[in-house]
Design brief:
The chain starts with a helix and ends with a strand. The strands form 2 sheets. Strands 1, 2, 5, 6, 7, 8 and 9 form a 7-stranded mixed β-sheet that branches. Strand 8 and strand 9 form a beta hairpin. The protein has a single domain, classed as Phage tail protein-like (STM4215-like). The chain is α+β, with helices and mostly antiparallel strands.
C-alpha cells in the first residue's frame, strides 16, 4: 500500500519532485517541500475485511508562509481521496481523509509542517 500511495503522490504533485520519504529518511538538510509517509499499523474494525490501515502524510515546507502548506495539503487530498490504488499484493484500495493536525514549526527539521490523516476505505482482491 505504501508504495502505491508514494507513487501517486509523486505522479500528482510535481513540486515535491519525487521527495516522498519514510520517517527515517528525511531531516533538516532535506530539500523542501517534501512529504514523509508513515504507516500507522492495522486497526481492528467491523469492516468486512476486519481491519483498516491508517497512514499519516507529513508535509514539510520552508519557513516562509503557511500558504505553501495549505496548497500542498489541498493537492495531497485531491491526489489520494477516493482514488483506487493497487498494492504490491494486487489488492485494490482507496483512502479516506480523516483531517489534519495543527500547523507548527519543527525546530529540529527547520521546517513548517502539518500532518494529514488517511485510512483505507475499502480493500478488494489479493
Amino acid at each position: 500500500m505504501r508504495k502505491a500511495i508514494r507513487q501517486r503522490l509523486i505522479d500528482k504533485i510535481p513540486e515535491i519532485a519525487g521527495r516522498v520519504y519514510e520517517p527515517s529518511m528525511a531531516g533538516p538538510s532535506t530539500k523542501k517541500p517534501y512529504i514523509v509517509l508513515k504507516y500507522g499499523g492495522d486497526i481492528a474494525t467491523s469492516m468486512r475485511y476486519g481491519f483498516e490501515v491508517p497512514f499519516e502524510v507529513w508535509l514539510y515546507c520552508e519557513r516562509t508562509t503557511f500558504k505553501e502548506l495549505d496548497a500542498l495539503e489541498s493537492k495531497v487530498i485531491r491526489a489520494l481521496l477516493g482514488v483506487d490504488l493497487v498494492s504490491s499484493s494486487d489488492q485494490t484500495f482507496s483512502l479516506k481523509y480523516n483531517g489534519s493536525s495543527s500547523d507548527f514549526y519543527d525546530d529540529d527539521w527547520e521546517a513548517l509542517t502539518r500532518r494529514l490523516d488517511f485510512r483505507t476505505d475499502r480493500i478488494r482482491g489479493g
